[in-house]
Every structure is written in structure tokens, then in C-alpha cells.
Amino acid sequence: MAQILAPSTQWQMSLPKTSNLASSLTTKMWSSLLLKQNKKAAAKSTAKFRVLAVKSENSTINRLENLLNLDITPFTDKIIAEYIWIGVLFLVSLTIDISDMQTISKPVKHPSELPKWNYDGSSTGQAPGEDSEVILYPQAIFKDPFRGGNNILVNVLCDAYTPAGEPIPTNKRHKAAQIFSDPKVVAEVPWYGIEQEYTLLQTNVKWPLGWPVGGYPGPQGPYYCGAGADKSFGRDISDAHYKACLYAGIDISGTNGEVMPGQWEYQVGPSVGIDAGDHIWISRYILERITEQAGVVLSLDPKPIEGDWNGAGCHTNFSTKTMREDGGYEAIKRSILNLSLRHKDHISAYGEGNERRLTGKHETASIYTFSWGVANRGCSIRVGRDTEKQGKGYLEDRRPASNMDPYVVTSLLAETTLLWQPTLEAEALAAQKLALNV
After folding, report:
1. Tens digit of pLDDT for each residue in 321-376?
2. What pLDDT score does 147 carry?
3. What's the CA gap between 226 and 192, in Å, rounded?
4. Which residue of 58, 341, 347, 416 has the smallest Cβ count within 10 Å?
5. Whole-number CA gyration radius for the chain
6. Distance, CA of 366 to chain centre
7. Rounded average pLDDT over 393-422
8. Which DSSP category does 421 fall into?
């Protein structure tokens, strides 16, 4: 059974009531459905959804929108808070996003108003069975694009603790928050713009959306930012995700079809400090929910298809206050110098399976060699033409994989460029090797 869910104040399912069309929506023939804007909807009814459950066996359509659109505000002040956290990484797949719902007695404006929660850590591989409680500390809240109203998504991503108050091993947010609270980092107001690539897979065969089962489409070339039924596969998911993120309050700033068909990208930023990690994790969760409803599998594998196909990365654009001011190019070059000296540390923290992606081909640098260049997408670090011309701006770290932990990557960039100090000898050798005059 495949399900489609979309906010009907912004989108309306276009589905004529004919048995012929209903019978065509089978599992094997599932394809992107066109979501059209419902301009007639009342502005305040942001919680409405149109849900269609398509059952391929007998082509019957079950409509559940009456319950999902049930307006409870006239009857209660209570809201639904969905607690979201990070589970355990399995191979190169997306870290499992886990959620739990509870009822809150009144609308909430700040995470401090929310109670701590707990879950069975033994069921997620994060605690032993004899001491299984893991405590969730609410850290950020976002509007809920699936339920609307005052309901919220509570970002407690990876911010999970033992009953004694110690962060569990998978809690990467805790260390990131410490780095971002350092006075030197705070003074530099680090900005991040993260490009999250992902691949959409057909449910039953785990093969990219739009690809013939067991076969391949035409070679790469026409798919990047392409349009047309033979070039773009899954645009409705990308568009629905974009609007849902805007509704939730995420710093999403763009989206586009990628080089490999069935692969997409969205950008989050500019975000400051710890917010970058929070917003990427919540945006991933929303995307997981949307693909769930669309009957499509979301993959963050950095190289989902072997061969002459682009992998999936999470390029991270980074700047500090000094970099953004006049003369900031010198600070950018010094940061590149530091990054070169800690290349192995960064690579080890930039995602699982990244060695299959960073081959020196398909717009990547070799995983074994650090490099930088202006407008060069085959380097570890790319500097834009405008940054070079204006003498200030930002750098792009092209090494992170699509399944990277944004808390780890963003905090490590801040640590290496703002807090870590290399020896003078190492700095001089690296500057000579990279032709950096700093």
C-alpha cells in the first residue's frame, strides 16, 4: 500500500475519480504525482491534509482526511509534541530518526517549557537492557508541517543522556555545543550553508526512482537541474519537502535536481553555529516522513550506484566574521592551511562509505590527498571566483558525505580553523606545499 500526504492549504492532490486511473496506481507503476496548489483554502487552516491510500490489490481508495484534518482546537488547548532523536548508524544508511509523541497541556514557545522524556535505549542499541532508560533533553522546537496548528516537532536530535546526566556515545550535539560556546568561536559568528544530496529509490527493488528495474537510464548530462518526464524523477517530493521545511521554520534556501537521475539536493543556510546541525537533522526527518508517505525510499548512501555515476555529498560552505570582512581572503587561506594539516581527522569524521565517493572522479578529490583551488570542484576545498575577486567571503568543504553528522562536521570546521594551532614548522611546510602565501 502506498500513501500520499501533503498539506492541502499549499497542495491539493489532483486525482480524477475514475476507476481507470485508480487501477493504474499500482506498486509497479508508481510514479511522481502532480501536487497542485489549492488557492481556495482558507489562510488559517494550515493543518489540513489530503491523504490517499492506494491499495494495488483491488485498486480501492481509502480516504482518511476526515480524521487527519480533525480540528481539535475548539475542544482542547493541548498540543502534540513529537520528540525526535538520533539512533544508531547502520552501515552507510541514514542514521535512524526516531520519534515519540506526547500531549502537552498548552502551546510552547521555548524548549525549556518542555519536559524531559525518556525511551528504551536497549531497543535502539544505545543502552544495555539492564539499564535501558535514555533521557531526552529538548533543545529546539519547530512547527509541525504534518499536523499544523500549535503542534510542534521537538528537536532533541542526538541530545540524549544517561539517567546520571552523561551524554551517551551517539550524542554528538553535546560536544558541538561546547565548541560553539567557546568565546573565540562565538566572537567569529560562524556561518554554514550545507548542501544535502540524497537519492530516491523504488521501494521494492531499492533501485533509483525513474530507472528501469535492473537497467540503466541514459548517461549523465541532461538530468542536472533538468525538467521533463524523462529527466526529472521525484520533483513533487522535492517541492513538498521545500514547503514543509519553510513551514517548520528551517533555514532552507534552495533545491535542485542533481547530476545522477533520481538524485536531488537541498540547501540549508546560512545558519549560525549549532543551528546548522539542528536544521539539517530536522530537515532530514521531514524528508524521511514525506518519502514514507510517497512510498519511496530515501537513501543517504554516498555512492548508491557504482560505476560512472555521481555520488552523494553534503558540501559544507563555511565562513567566519573575519572571512566575511575586507581582507578576509587571508583568513580563508590560513583556514585552508589548518584544514590541510588535519585532513585525516576530518576524513575520518566526514561520513561512512566516503572512500567509495572520494575517488578523484565525478567532481571529487581523492580521499587520500588534500587539495584546494578557485572554482575547482575536483578539490577538497573550493574557493569561489567572487571570493577571490572581492578578497573576502567563504570556503566550501567538498569532502563530507551525504550521511555525515552535521554536528560533527560543523563543529570540527570551527575547531580546526578557530581553536586549533599548528606548529610553526608544520604550518610553513604546508604553506609551501599548497602554494599558500599566508
Report:
1. 999 999 999 999 999 999 999 999 999 999 999 999 999 999 999 999 999 999 99
2. 84
3. 27
4. 58
5. 23
6. 24
7. 97
8. -
Domains and CATH numbers, the chain: 2-68 (no CATH), 79-170 (3.10.20.70), 183-434 (3.30.590.10)
20's CB contacts (< 8 A; 6+ apart) are: none
- Give the CA dihedral 208, 147, 173, 408, nearest 10 degrees: 20
- Contact at 8 Å (CB) between 419 and 182? yes
**DSSP-assigned letter for residue 222:** S
Quick one: what percent of the chain has pLDDT higher than 90? 57
Q: Is the dihedral of CA 361, 302, 311, 434 positive or negative?
A: negative
Angle of helix 424-434 versus helix 328-341 axis, rounded to 10: 100
Instruction: Report the chain's terminal Cα–Cα distance, integer Å.
Output: 60
Output the pLDDT for position 218.
94
pTM score > 0.85 for this model?
A: no
- Cα–Cα separations (whole angstroms), residue 298 to 88, 283, 393: 17, 13, 33
Output 55-59 pairs: Cβ under 8 A, ≥24 positions apart.
55/1, 56/1, 56/2, 56/25, 56/26, 56/27, 59/19, 59/22, 59/23, 59/25, 59/26
Percentages (nearest 5) of helix, strand, coil residues in the chain: 30, 25, 45
Report residue 329 as a C-alpha cell.
Answer: 581572503
Predicted pLDDT at 28 = 37
Instruction: Please tell me the distance from the alpha carbon of residue 167 to that of residue 136, in angstroms, as a whole number.
Output: 10
Residue 278 has pLDDT above 90, yes or no: yes
Output the CA torsion sign for 404, 408, 410, 413.
negative
**Could you tell me whether strands 35-36 and 97-104 are parallel, antiparallel, or unpaired per DSSP bridges?**
unpaired
Determine whether 242 is exposed, middle or buried from the number of CB atoms within 10 Å of its CB (0-12, 13-18, 19+): middle
Over range 276-303, report the average pLDDT. 95
Q: How far is CA 224 from CA 12, 230, 272, 330, in A?
A: 27, 12, 29, 34
Q: 31-68, pLDDT tens digit by residue? A: 333 333 333 333 343 445 444 444 444 433 456 777 77
Q: Which of 257, 351, 263 is nearest to 309 (CA)?
A: 263
**CA 373 from centroid of its chain's CA atoms:** 26
Confidence of residue 125 (pLDDT cuts 50, 70, 90): confident
Asked whether residue 88 carries a pLDDT value surpassing 60, the answer given is: yes
Cα distance between residue 268 and residue 245, in whole Å: 10
**How high is the mean pLDDT of the chain?**
82
Do the Cβ atoms of 233 and 210 come closer than 8 Å?
yes
